[in-house]
Amino acid sequence: MYNPKNVKTYKDENENLDLSARAYAQIIGMISSGSLKMGQIITEDAMKNRLGMSKTPIREAFASLEFEGIISKNGRSYSVIYPEREELNEIYEFKREVEGLAAYFATLRMTPEDKNELKRIIDLIVKENKESGDPVVLANLSGELHEAIAKGSKNNLIRKDIESMRLKLRIVRISLFASMERKQEELAEHLLITNAILNNNPDEARKVMYDHQTDVWNYVKAKVVPRLYY
To answer: Are residue 96 and residue 32 in the same domain, yes or no?
Structure first.
């Protein structure tokens, strides 16, 4: 999400930060809803008029989105970027195998502290689902859960691969959680994965993680890709 790092705290800049965070959230919403599609050109002037804000918060929101790899700068304009359809298929094909391995090894290698962190994250996911169910918050929490599992695998190659794929799929994941239908399925699957790990069942953890990634992949192909891509 928008990172307010290095922003001073006096009143005028606090107000600007609020607008920047709002601009960021609104642009993310436009992308995840399909209002802004892959490859679409966006400019500060056009977004300023669309959101009814000055250029400064728009510029700061664009900087955060560019840093996260969601948009890229082309001269004075930006374009929305995320994986091509073919690359998306390749990512998920690989992702379900690697995430399954991460869950398997995490079950065998997680420390008590690692497991407590996993419990903390799943509790936050359950709470957010019961309360506002914000898709950006849920996408971030889901990323934290998968990162905790990857970290618990104690395999740096697995962890780096999962992190790389997670960043490429940010908009896809936000779009995923924007669906109430898939949101509940995500929760159920995350609970299955967490319980298998906490109950020390590595084969089950690998299986339910593989099944989870397969279900996500199928949903993305059927529901998300047609909305995000031209």
So the answer is: no
Report residue 190 CA to chain centroid gap. Answer: 15
Closest to 62 (Cα-Cα) out of 74, 46, 50, 73: 73
Q: Which of 45, 62, 80 is the last residue of a domain?
A: 80
- Taking alpha carbons only, the member of 199, 203, 102 closest to residue 149 is 102
| CATH code where residue 76 lies | 1.10.10.10
Residue type, position 124, single letter: L
Is 3 strand, coil or helix? coil
Do 102 and 195 have their domain in common? yes
Residues whose CB is less than 8 angstroms from the CB of residue 84 and which lie 6 or more positions away in sequence, other chains included? none
Q: Are residues 64 and 101 in the same domain?
A: no
Run of H or E residues at 73:
strand 71-74
Pair of tokens at residue 38: 């892959």
Greatest Cα pair distance in the chain = 55
Same domain flag for 97 and 64: no
User: What are 2-48's pLDDT values in tens digits?
Assistant: 343 433 333 344 455 588 988 988 888 787 667 887 788 999 999 99
Closest CA to 228 of 2, 64, 38, 20: 38
What's the CA gap between 170 and 17, in Å, rounded?
A: 22
